[in-house]
Write a structure and sequence with these properties.
By secondary structure, the chain is mostly helical. It is built from two helices and no strands. The two termini are 30 Å apart.
Length: 73
């Protein structure tokens, strides 16, 4: 299903962003500023919506699971 593929890609994007941030922090401590500045520029247009989509999917999945269990009683 297309939605499943989008969510899987979103998970990998969020994981990649987390690793990028960690590497950028290490490089920042070595006075290399470019990776952290690039991350900061991409935070609002790329990583914030990706994290929001991931959280919304998790909440929706939990709510649907609760609703299905509720209906089985």
């Amino acid at each position: 299903m297309l939605l499943d593929r989008i969510l899987v890609a979103d998970v990998f994007l969020v994981i990649l962003g987390a690793f990028w941030f960690l590497v950028a922090l290490v490089l920042h401590s070595q006075h290399v500023e470019a990776p952290l500045e690039t991350f900061r520029r991409l935070w609002d247009p790329l990583f914030t919506p990706a994290i929001g989509l991931l959280m919304a999917a998790a909440l929706l999945s939990g709510a649907l699971g609760w609703w299905q269990r509720r209906g089985q009683r």
